[in-house]
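Bumping my old thread because nobody answered last time. Still need a sequence for this structure:
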């Protein structure tokens, strides 16, 4: 997208990251060093999140987009948002998100299933709190209520469950957010971001697992990690793009976003006023326990 057609620069010092979970079905890893995160038409995005970092790095805000959001994809008209990645990879997905939100994306990161497992295992697993026991018929897994210690493979099964959840994909997004919070908590509790040796090991695993835009180097990732070393899990706020509910379009089940409420949210991102936004509207996501 020509620069003139993109949203204007963000408030000085702030950063906005587009984070994508690729659902590539592959026997080998598709993201990370030396790998291509996208093959035309072969995958969509399992997870789409906008990470907003204030200039002082004292907080972080993670905004999820329902993957079935019915939006305008440049060149393709109205489509589910995750189709953008399938049609045109990271570039088209960034164009779609920027057009939808009016927020300029500074950096991009993608991770596939194999990379996700590796990241969880690199931190020694995570702990999640499951609200109610539930059975996943697709993968034949019984999830028991209460705190559960998950390794990489188990964490992947946990965040991928879609069927038999009371609110379908919305509960799935809560699981994704809860898993990210659990990862952040594990990194903080284990001193990963403050111990140089642990940080080196973690960043090594990260660069082997995640694909990022060409403007990022290993040094940039280290600087980002160090700048956030004092951010506690309680300082990370998880939100979901406001919606008006689900419906059908040409036999497709889709999510209709709420343009007015979404405009208020993303204007707060653009103007670096997310703290005031959360005070006024709340986060809306209770991740103390997930479905």
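Sorry it took so long. Here it is:
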């Amino acid at each position: 997208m020509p620069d003139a057609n993109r949203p204007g620069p963000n408030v000085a010092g702030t950063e906005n990251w587009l984070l994508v979970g690729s659902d590539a079905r592959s026997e080998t890893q598709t993201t990370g060093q030396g790998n291509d995160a996208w093959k035309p038409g072969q995958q969509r995005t399992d997870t789409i999140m906008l990470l907003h970092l204030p200039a002082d790095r004292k907080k972080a805000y993670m905004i999820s987009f329902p993957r079935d959001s019915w939006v305008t994809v440049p060149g393709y008209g109205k489509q589910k948002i995750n189709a953008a990645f399938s049609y045109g990879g990271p570039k088209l997905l960034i164009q779609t998100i920027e057009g939808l939100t009016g927020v300029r994306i500074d950096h991009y990161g993608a991770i596939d299933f194999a990379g996700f497992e590796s990241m969880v295992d690199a931190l020694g697993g995570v702990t999640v709190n499951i609200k109610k026991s539930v059975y996943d018929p697709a993968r034949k897994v019984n999830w028991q209520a209460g705190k559960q210690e998950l390794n990489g493979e188990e964490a992947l099964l946990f965040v991928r469950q879609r069927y038999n959840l009371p609110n379908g994909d919305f509960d799935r997004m809560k699981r994704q957010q809860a898993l990210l919070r659990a990862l952040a908590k594990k990194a903080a509790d284990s001193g990963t971001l403050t111990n140089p040796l642990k940080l080196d090991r973690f960043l090594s695993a990260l660069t082997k697992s995640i694909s990022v835009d060409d403007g990022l180097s290993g040094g940039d990732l280290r600087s980002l990690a160090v700048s956030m070393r004092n951010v506690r899990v309680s300082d990370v706020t998880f939100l979901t793009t406001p919606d008006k509910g689900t419906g059908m379009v040409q036999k497709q089940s889709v999510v209709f976003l709420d343009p007015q409420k979404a405009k208020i949210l993303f204007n707060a991102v653009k103007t670096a006023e997310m703290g005031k936004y959360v005070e006024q509207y709340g986060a809306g996501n209770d991740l103390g326990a997930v479905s």
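The chain has one domain: 3-281. Let me know if any region looks off to you.
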